[in-house]
Amino acid sequence: MTDYGHDLTFGSFLTPDNRDPHAVVERALHSERVGLDLVTFQDHPYQPAHLDAWTLMSWVAARTERVHLSANVTNLPLRNPAVLARSVAGLDLLSGGRIDLGLGAGAFWQAIGAMGGRVLTPGESVTALGEAIDIIRGIWAADDRTPLRIRGDFHTADGAKRGPAPAHDVPIWLGAYKPRMLRLVAAKGDGWLPSWSMLKSPSLAEGNAIIDEEAAAHGRDPREITRLLNINGAFGTSAEPFQGPPAQWIDLLLRLVLEDGVSTFVLGSDDPNTLAVFGEEVAPALREAAAAERTAAGTPGGRVRPAAALARRHGGIDYDGVPPALAGRAVEPGDHSYEGLRSSYVWPGSPGLVLRPQGTPQVAEALGWARAQDVPLTVRSGGHGISGRSTNDGGIVIDLGALDGVEVVDRARRLVRVGAGARWGDVAAALAPHSLAISSGDSGDVGVGGLATTAGIGLLARSFGLTVDRVRGAEVVLADGTTVHADADHHPDLFWALRGAGGNMGVVTSLDIEATELADVVFALFAHEVTDLAEFLSAWGSTTEDAPRELTPFLTLVRRQGGFVAQTYAVWAGDDTEAAAEALQPYLELAPVLQQRAHLLPYAAVVTPARPSHQGQARQRSRSALVDHIDPHTARALAGMFEDGLTSYAQIRAVGGAVNDTPADATAYAHRTQNFALSAVLRESRAAEGNAAWDRLGADALYLSFETHDHGTALTRAFPPATLERLRGIKAHYDPDHVFRTNFPIEPVSS
Questions:
Q1: Does residue 711 surpass a pLDDT of 70?
Q2: Mean pLDDT over residues 308-329, rounded?
Q3: CATH assignment of 520-722, given 3.40.462.20, 3.40.50.300, 3.40.250.10, 3.90.1800.10?
């Protein structure tokens, strides 16, 4: 008797009859409505009476929302494995992770040969299937940058580029009956998918024994392999298997669960009533009965991790103790999702565990559990930040990406509630129909939580101030796990600290922000050819200080042979194109213009999110400074760093205007006299020289979000003495144990 403890799932096995194409689609939709988890289709490409399975699955994927889809099973001899891998990955990405892969070695060889497929012997077909699995998994390994090279006897990939990776760990289920195929299931498969009507010898028990023994020989836990079963039948009064009333089905299926380890039952039927009884009566009753039997027997359940993945776990983390509410979405080394979550945009990381809570209570639970582990703790909102503080090595990352709601809670007050895990591009898009906007950096990929608790120097800053200037309240999970709402009347000291040093005080899960009335803006872009960089910088700075505060320009500098390219992109906060053109005209006179354009468009179109995969691909050492003016000394110092080869990329962001309307002591961000934020990427090989040259700017203030590495003077330049002293006292009250210490840590000091 074998019960592997897998969760029970139920599916349908539909005939893709093309006489009424939409009837089979309706049966798939019906399967979802009656509660089934999986919809599968026959795949016989040589059968002219059938719809092509992959075309049908694409159509059904677009019409359904929840069910997984699979061919049952895919006819490999007529489908190139590398192309099949990309078909599966593409449809999985489009469907949000709902495509599974049933594979067969082949049958009906005469029909396969008539369609141009290679006719194989039974032994050859098993070898070919093993080669195909290796190619499919190799294509899906998108994080491996090496070309895929597999030279098999029947399938070959000679330098194929890998990718894309599917949206989830696509299981490969093999339709198998003979011992050699069963051994292939054990070695390379994720599931065994036979049909009840085809099982003679070996039986389910005999097949399981072969798979389990071979899996152990390959260093696998047999529980890694799901046991599925296709069944055919109808509900009636017969004593024959799968021909009686629902109670008879439940008794038989329960024996198959407890004695033969089957956990996924796929019913071959095109009858809507049969599918409804199976999904609405049999499935829930069988789940309940199996749960009771497993509880009484003490059968272990839950996720079974491959041995290779278990070997990648880090010390200091109690992986088996992850709270149940968090365990289902937790990601650890070896998981499919790990490569996309381990790193930030700037820096690569290798955390031991990524927790992905789905609400404030789960954030509190995640924080409490993480505190009990003996590893570093990091909190991440979007992972785009230049400072690179949203990942770690060997520790725990609490990823707030699921907390991404955007809600206009009071249109009259223009009050918007934004989840800390939302991206600013999505916020802008959600507010556009309301003719509202929030100043929020220059990239739609930046996460809300990181920017809105540091400052928020964006393309509307001179017009409407920093993002923190518009925050009216925040929901915060404190170090001790309690949740509070902080605003001007509740926890005012915490509310003050959150707006500039929030990452040191708690986990902000949502913010109430006062938006501004704004629909269309003028977005302009100029590229200048520059030879005398210091002179250009001084002139650009003066022009910006003289510009109306409706205009917020940013300048990007890139060195090229023979000179520099200076790119200005600017936003005029409003739809007055004549006033915008008048304000922009002086920039055209600063140097020879290589390119110019200006458009009237919604603000949301300026900060659209690109959603790149974060692979630490922008690795850089960045320094920042806040200055009152681009005076001759500042201009010469920055130009000299380019000329000396210490940097090849720098940016100047305009602040001033509305930013400086806010009193310096109103928020923890206290820099309210400067007109410019400078940043530069230093050459890694000459970091010491670059840092020394940067310090010669003489700036006494910096912007922490653009500092990638801590250094002795970072905090004293980020926060003036009185501000830093107050922050240390607040820290001592709300985080006395210094739990939040990865983002330029502020030591708690009681006054």
A1: no
A2: 90
A3: 3.40.462.20
Residue-range domain boundaries for the chain:
9-297, 308-399, 520-722
DSSP string over 591-646: S-EEEEEEEEEEHHHHS-------SSTT--EEEEEEES---HHHHHHHHHHHHTTS
Beta bridge partners of 476: 484, 508
| pLDDT tens by residue, 440-493 | 988 999 999 999 999 999 999 999 999 999 999 999 999 999 999 999 999 999
Report the 3 state secondary structure along 687-742: HHHHHHHHHCCCCCCCCHHHCCCCCCCHHHHHCCHHHHHHHHHHHHHHCCCCCCCC
- Asked if 682 and 647 count as a contact pair (C-beta separation under 8 A), the reply is yes
pTM over cut 0.85: no
Q: Tens digits of per-residue pLDDT, 721-751?
A: 999 999 999 999 999 999 999 888 999 997 6
Say if CB 98 and CB 67 are below 8 A apart: yes
108: which 2 tokens? 């009906």
Look up the CATH number of domain 9-297. Answer: 3.20.20.30
Q: Give the number of residues written for the chain.
A: 751
Distance CA 55, CA 291 (A): 38
- Cα separation, 123 vs 299, whole angstroms: 38
Of the candidate CATH numbers 3.30.365.10, 3.30.1490.20, 3.40.50.1370, 3.30.43.10, the domain formed by 308-399 belongs to: 3.30.43.10
Mean predicted confidence (pLDDT) in 46-54: 96
Contact 427, 512 (CB under 8 A): no
How high is the mean pLDDT of the chain? 94
Distance, in Å, from the CA atom of 734 to the CA atom of 376, rounded to the nearest integer, reads 19
What value, to the nearest 5°, has the Cα angle with vertex 428 and ends 363 and 518? 135
